[in-house]
Amino acid sequence: MAAEALMTRDIVPARKLTAIVGRVMIADGDTFETRDVPQISVDLEGIALDGLLGERHRGYARAADARVPWYPRGTPIRNARQISIVCSEELADVAARMGIAEIRPEWLGANLVIEGVPSLSMLPRGTRLFFPTAASLAVEEQNVPCKGPGRMIARNVGGDAGMPFDFVRKAARKRGLVAWVERAGVIRVGDTVEIRIPEQWVYA
């Protein structure tokens, strides 16, 4: 009966959207704060930079942290957080909820700002983003807000000690997405993005 009931639940068909790359950014400094560049090259390790300096989130693997409490801290795990993606509409909404003028993507360590998808953070795991130069990204999950970016926001807007906690509350399900590189290529400001959302259902 349980399996039969599951099969009769509503299934949302797969669909496609289009969007625009509004900004492209990299974190190549001492902090997670990012800076604008006209384009990035991506390979299966993430963002590829010239020279010996690596982009902050580059790599096949990363160390387990508080986001994956089922592993001991520091355990090498697959890096599904190579690229951080946000949208300007959601950041404007979070800023309004917090009572501040703006939240800049670079304060959150974002790599891509996507325009034209107001509920970007709600795109499900497995969504693919295809770019004109053949680069593609696979969405891993929502980027759960934490206090680190909240402290960066507070520092830039003159907020108090409670602002990082306020950010965690107000940015829930609006902090954007993390993704990993499925196919190498180049991502440029102004690119049209084809977003392919897989078939969805609720397993309950």
Automatic annotation (TrEMBL):
Residue ranges crossing the lipid bilayer per the database entry: none
Pfam families documented for this protein: MOSC (PF03473)
GO molecular-function term, one example from the UniProt record: molybdenum ion binding
Domain MOSC, chain residue ranges per copy: 42-196
Protein name from the UniProt record: Molybdenum cofactor sulfurase
Gene source species: Alsobacter metallidurans
